[in-house]
Design a protein that fits this description.
By secondary structure, the chain is an alpha+beta fold. The protein contains two helices and nine strands. The chain has a seven-stranded antiparallel beta sheet, with no helix packed on it. Strands 2-3 form a two-stranded antiparallel ribbon.
Length: about 120
């Protein structure tokens, strides 16, 4: 009887843990940069990365494996329809190309990346 109660308690705890992970609303996407670029003042080398967007706090993290290359706050811009594919907007800056917008395929929002580094230097 005690053993059954322990198993049920552990199962409920596991369900609660999995449920809280689902509520975190972090979405992962694979992205590839064909050139080096600045993301909010941080140089990101060309290559393949994972992007994690946390809807709750509006943070975008670009990961190289399990290492976070950059974490930055973004603003969401609603799209008229779902994005057909992942796309980027890049602006030429004094220090090189800068990522200003990213849209994930299948998403209904574009993520606007502010350049806080440039704003601080003015």
């Amino acid at each position: 009887m005690k053993r059954n109660a322990t198993i049920i308690a552990l199962a409920l705890a596991l369900c609660a843990l999995v449920g809280s992970m689902a509520l975190a609303k972090s979405k992962f996407h694979r992205i590839s940069f064909e050139q080096d670029m600045l993301v909010n003042g941080t140089l990101v080398k060309k290559g393949d990365y994972q992007a994690r967007f946390n809807e709750q706090n509006g943070e975008l993290t670009i990961l190289d494996g399990s290492h976070a290359v950059i974490t930055t706050t973004v603003k969401e811009e609603m799209l008229a329809k779902k994005a057909p594919a992942t796309s980027f907007e890049i602006r030429a800056g004094d220090s090189g190309p800068m990522l200003t917008k990213i849209t994930f395929g299948g998403g209904r929002y574009a993520l606007l990346i502010s350049d806080n580094q440039s704003a601080e230097g003015q």
